[in-house]
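Comment on both lines for my students:
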Amino acid sequence: MSPTASGQPPASQTDAPQFESDPAKGRDFREISVHPNGEELLFVECSRALEPAGGCYVLRYHLTRKSLQRYVLPEQYFYTSASFSPQGNYVVMSRVPRHDSDQESVQHAYDKTEIALMKSDGTEFGILQLAKGPKVGPNISLDGRRVAYWRAALRKPASRTFSNNFDVWEMNLSTGEDRLFAGPFLFYERDGLQYLSQDEMVVGAYGPVAFLRQHAQSMTTYDKKYNRSGVYRFSRGAALLPEPICTEVEGAKIPSIDKDGNVYFYGQRPGISLFKRSMDGHIKQWVKPQDIGGISSMVASSDGLSILFTYHVRGTQPREAKEGMGMLDTSASGWKAIDIPSLERSDTIPVMMTK
């Protein structure tokens, strides 16, 4: 068996560790964030548990105390994503007005997406003054002075995807200036974004439409050249699309970084796994347990000692939105499921508007 570039033999699915996944406990969890203390998680859950009409709530879970808290946010909105600031003292989130499930109502709501910012204790809640249009996945800069987010375009009803033409925008909280961080590149799909420094970020994206059109390339050719990597490193103001990184692993996506700049991501080599690419280029692999379906979101703790993730529960259909939550201990290579208490058992965190 030949070694990989990291000096380790390639893993296979038969090497996968054990992991207990209970379909009955699957819930509609959304993108996950971890506090710099490594103990608290922030995520969104959509559910009808608290009200018949349903809602999407911003939740905070403490791993050691096993306690769940729910921010009491304005009820006329669905909350679509949320994340801690790098210091953990602020929370930034995206929200859309409540809507019916028909295509026209959904599109009308997402065209009015807002990004909100508050202190993590629920005080000083306010809305960023941004142009209308779909906005998702906001993240706060290392110094807390900027908010980056994905802006997209809505597609026609009955299209294969709901939105596309994703680009990273950034708002300066001091001046109110809102502009492209880099590009435009018009990605077909997106996942995470995270600041690497004040002027750089690591992003997960796929299908740079603007680049392919300009160079008359097909996505097949682009994928073959870069091993289907969907991980990029952007510099503020860059007009030219940089080459993807983490190309040593096929299909790299959903990147996250620790405080030292190491990149964690999801991919295949040949087992479907979580990976760490160190600053020196060394790659470490943790083969995903077979009970875990596809990883839908993931984030590394700032010290790199754990990776928190949401995953599709095997044995359920995608339309059921059955997601589980788990954690990988990177030092011991141990995987475990996280049993989140029910929404009915959550304690509330009052939210106070900025005066």
